[in-house]
From TrEMBL:
Pfam families: ABM (PF03992). InterPro entries: ABM_dom, Dimeric_a/b-barrel. It comes from the Bacteria. This is Antibiotic biosynthesis monooxygenase. Keywords: Monooxygenase, Oxidoreductase. GO terms for molecular function: monooxygenase activity. Residues 7-100 form the ABM domain.
Protein backbone atom coordinates (compact mmCIF):
# COMPACT_ATOMS: atom_id res chain seq x y z
CA UNK A 1 0.00 0.00 0.00
CA UNK A 2 1.30 3.45 -0.89
CA UNK A 3 2.12 5.51 2.21
CA UNK A 4 0.14 8.54 1.00
CA UNK A 5 -3.10 6.55 1.12
CA UNK A 6 -2.80 5.65 4.82
CA UNK A 7 -5.35 7.47 6.98
CA UNK A 8 -4.12 7.88 10.57
CA UNK A 9 -6.19 8.57 13.66
CA UNK A 10 -4.58 9.78 16.88
CA UNK A 11 -6.54 9.87 20.11
CA UNK A 12 -5.34 11.66 23.22
CA UNK A 13 -6.96 9.92 26.16
CA UNK A 14 -7.11 11.43 29.65
CA UNK A 15 -7.41 8.60 32.15
CA UNK A 16 -8.71 9.01 35.69
CA UNK A 17 -6.09 8.92 38.46
CA UNK A 18 -5.03 5.41 39.44
CA UNK A 19 -6.88 3.76 36.54
CA UNK A 20 -4.01 3.55 34.04
CA UNK A 21 -3.17 -0.14 34.57
CA UNK A 22 -6.83 -1.17 34.28
CA UNK A 23 -7.26 1.00 31.18
CA UNK A 24 -4.22 -0.67 29.57
CA UNK A 25 -5.57 -4.13 30.38
CA UNK A 26 -9.05 -3.42 28.99
CA UNK A 27 -7.61 -1.71 25.90
CA UNK A 28 -5.63 -4.88 25.18
CA UNK A 29 -8.68 -7.08 25.79
CA UNK A 30 -10.99 -5.16 23.44
CA UNK A 31 -8.38 -4.29 20.79
CA UNK A 32 -9.46 -7.13 18.53
CA UNK A 33 -12.62 -5.19 17.72
CA UNK A 34 -10.40 -2.63 15.97
CA UNK A 35 -7.50 -4.61 14.51
CA UNK A 36 -9.69 -7.37 13.06
CA UNK A 37 -11.62 -4.83 11.00
CA UNK A 38 -10.58 -5.43 7.37
CA UNK A 39 -9.68 -1.76 6.84
CA UNK A 40 -7.45 -1.44 9.92
CA UNK A 41 -3.67 -1.56 9.38
CA UNK A 42 -2.67 -1.61 13.05
CA UNK A 43 -3.05 0.18 16.35
CA UNK A 44 -0.61 1.36 19.04
CA UNK A 45 -1.09 2.44 22.66
CA UNK A 46 1.45 4.76 24.27
CA UNK A 47 1.54 6.22 27.78
CA UNK A 48 2.82 9.76 27.88
CA UNK A 49 5.25 11.12 30.45
CA UNK A 50 2.87 14.06 30.89
CA UNK A 51 0.13 14.13 33.51
CA UNK A 52 -3.43 15.39 33.02
CA UNK A 53 -3.21 18.97 34.37
CA UNK A 54 -6.87 18.92 35.44
CA UNK A 55 -6.90 15.89 37.72
CA UNK A 56 -3.40 14.38 37.80
CA UNK A 57 -4.43 11.29 35.86
CA UNK A 58 -2.50 9.63 33.08
CA UNK A 59 -2.33 10.70 29.43
CA UNK A 60 -2.33 8.05 26.70
CA UNK A 61 -2.15 8.24 22.93
CA UNK A 62 -3.79 5.69 20.66
CA UNK A 63 -2.70 5.70 17.03
CA UNK A 64 -4.46 3.60 14.41
CA UNK A 65 -3.88 3.39 10.68
CA UNK A 66 -6.60 2.72 8.11
CA UNK A 67 -6.68 1.98 4.40
CA UNK A 68 -8.80 5.12 3.81
CA UNK A 69 -10.83 7.79 5.56
CA UNK A 70 -14.20 6.41 4.32
CA UNK A 71 -13.29 2.97 5.69
CA UNK A 72 -12.40 4.48 9.07
CA UNK A 73 -15.62 6.54 9.14
CA UNK A 74 -17.62 3.37 8.43
CA UNK A 75 -15.95 1.72 11.43
CA UNK A 76 -16.37 4.84 13.58
CA UNK A 77 -20.17 4.71 13.22
CA UNK A 78 -20.48 0.92 13.61
CA UNK A 79 -21.90 -1.06 16.52
CA UNK A 80 -18.48 -2.69 16.81
CA UNK A 81 -16.90 0.69 17.61
CA UNK A 82 -19.68 1.70 19.98
CA UNK A 83 -19.16 -1.46 22.04
CA UNK A 84 -15.38 -0.83 22.07
CA UNK A 85 -15.85 2.75 23.28
CA UNK A 86 -18.32 1.75 25.98
CA UNK A 87 -15.80 -0.65 27.53
CA UNK A 88 -13.09 2.05 27.70
CA UNK A 89 -15.34 4.95 28.74
CA UNK A 90 -15.33 4.27 32.52
CA UNK A 91 -11.58 5.00 32.63
CA UNK A 92 -11.67 8.28 30.72
CA UNK A 93 -11.95 11.80 32.08
CA UNK A 94 -11.61 13.39 28.63
CA UNK A 95 -9.77 13.30 25.36
CA UNK A 96 -9.49 14.48 21.79
CA UNK A 97 -9.05 13.08 18.29
CA UNK A 98 -6.89 14.22 15.38
CA UNK A 99 -6.95 12.71 11.90
CA UNK A 100 -4.24 12.92 9.25
CA UNK A 101 -2.81 11.38 6.13
CA UNK A 102 0.65 9.86 6.16
CA UNK A 103 2.69 11.65 3.47
CA UNK A 104 6.07 9.97 3.91
CA UNK A 105 7.77 7.18 5.80
CA UNK A 106 11.49 6.72 6.40
CA UNK A 107 12.22 3.26 7.79
CA UNK A 108 14.79 3.04 10.54
CA UNK A 109 17.86 0.89 10.60
CA UNK A 110 17.14 -0.86 13.88
Amino acid sequence: MATDTVFRVMLRMLIKPGMGPDFERVWSEVGDSVVTHPANLGQWLSRSDEEDPENGGSVYYIVSDWVSEPAFREFETSDRHLTHRQKLHPYRSGGSMVTMRVVAHLPGGG
